[in-house]
Amino acid sequence: VHLSPGGSSDMQFPLRALMQKEGVVTGSLLRPLPLAEKAVIAAALADNVWPRLGTQIRPVISCTLPLGQAAQAHQRLEEGDVAGKIVLLPQS
């Protein structure tokens, strides 16, 4: 979900890669909405989304690697066959 284009309304991305991963782009512009309507949206997020983060809504973790293997993690991401997040663990 993309909520605001920031300083530019132009956005470029590799469409083929998005389609291969069956991704969906959706967005909304909140800036032109009245403040009262933005407050309703913020309250709905606080009530319905934030409490679920980390419990019902969790990231998919593909693998965990030691921080020293960050280069290998980037290589996996660049190869494009990672489904989920790669978590780098601090070394003790």
The rounded distance between the terminal residues' Cα atoms is 36 Å
How many DSSP helices? 3
Task: Find the count of extended strands (DSSP E, 2+ residues).
Answer: 2
Estimate percent helicity: 25-40%
Q: State the strand order across the main sheet.
A: 1-2
| Main sheet specs | 2 strands, parallel
**Assembly type of the shown chains?**
single chain
Category from helices, strands and their pairing:
alpha+beta
Q: Topology as H/E string? A: HHEHE
Strand content: 5-15%
Please state the overall shape, judged from the principal axes of the Cα atoms. extended
List low-pLDDT spans: none
pLDDT averaged residue by residue: 86
Rg is 18 Å
Describe the structure.
- The protein has helices at 15-20, 35-48, 70-79, and strands spanning 61-66, 85-89.
- With 92 residues, it is an alpha+beta fold.
- The protein has a two-stranded parallel ribbon.
- Helix 3 (70-79) links the parallel strand 1 and strand 2.
- The chain is extended.
- The termini are far apart.
- The model has no long low-confidence stretch (mean pLDDT 86).
Helix and strand topology:
Elements: H1 15-20, H2 35-48, E1 61-66, H3 70-79, E2 85-89
Parallel strand pairs: 1-2
